[in-house]
Amino acid sequence: MTAPTGAPAPRTAPPGRYQLAAQLRLLGVRPGQLLLVHAALGGTGLRAETLRDALLGVLGPRGTLLVPAFTAENSLTSTAHLARVAGLDEVQAAAFRARMPPFDPDLTPSQDVGVFAEVVRTTPGAARSGHPQTSFAALGADAHRLCAGHRTESHLGEDSPLGKLCWEGGRVLMINVGFSACTAFHLAEYRIPKPPLRMYDCVVKVNLPEGRPDGRPGGREKGHPHEGEWKTYEDVALDDGDFEEIGRAFPDALVRGGRVGGAPAAFFSIPHAVDHAQAWMTENRC
Does residue 247 lie in a domain region? Predict the structure, then answer.
């Protein structure tokens, strides 16, 4: 399956909520679904708030909308972090690390996942999972349940919102993005035989009491609402380098293509995507 890529020609006027809702229904979005959305709206003419409202309207009061709310810079080894410290000497890099803000699920903005994901995350009533690098944000009936219990040692595994979505028959909607952004494929990395592991580092929020036993002030004084604690843990070595190839091999019969406000879109089942990726990885990854 060739994923939709490339921004469409600009529209004279952005599509409205009801026009988008009709297109979403044609793709297969239905009331009550658990729907994970990846969207790149730049150049499409789509407005994030309008798309959010259209999706919630189609999903209805019993459905749930989820988006990635990742924070890749909260790391010592990610590409995003390494780009930020490139060119710094050892002392400068240590100072940069000391200044890195700890992950706070209530306040930390998402990074490099698009304006639509950030609009969902900041919508009043949204839930967010607690993983310091690969959190999800959600709106709807099951938002808080799906975001609860996201283990640090399970970035995108069974003990993550993605794992729950797979077991409960969730769907994916990709708008103007390719399969390199298909987070569902990562769950397959946990299911292949003997997946490679690696160590991860991140800094997380630690609430402190108003005063400490040593007499120093706590971490809640004005301008310092919390302090950070570095955490090291082991998890699957995630690799999306072959996701486009996996997507090209995804059977066309399992993917419904269409348009959302003029932007190319694809809609498919998370269990189908994970099963396909697991079979492909088992055969092709050594």
Answer: yes
Confirm whether 268 is domain-assigned. yes
Model confidence over 101-127: pLDDT tens digits?
A: 999 999 999 999 999 999 999 999 999
Average pLDDT over residues 262-270: 97
In a domain, 147, yes or no: yes
The string over 166-191, giving b where at least 16 C-beta atoms fall within 10 Å of a residue's C-beta and e elsewhere, is: beeebbbbbbbbbbbbbbbbbbbbbb
Domain holding 135, by residue range, is 1-71+109-190+239-286
212 in a domain, yes or no? no
pLDDT tens digits, residue range 47-57?
999 999 999 99
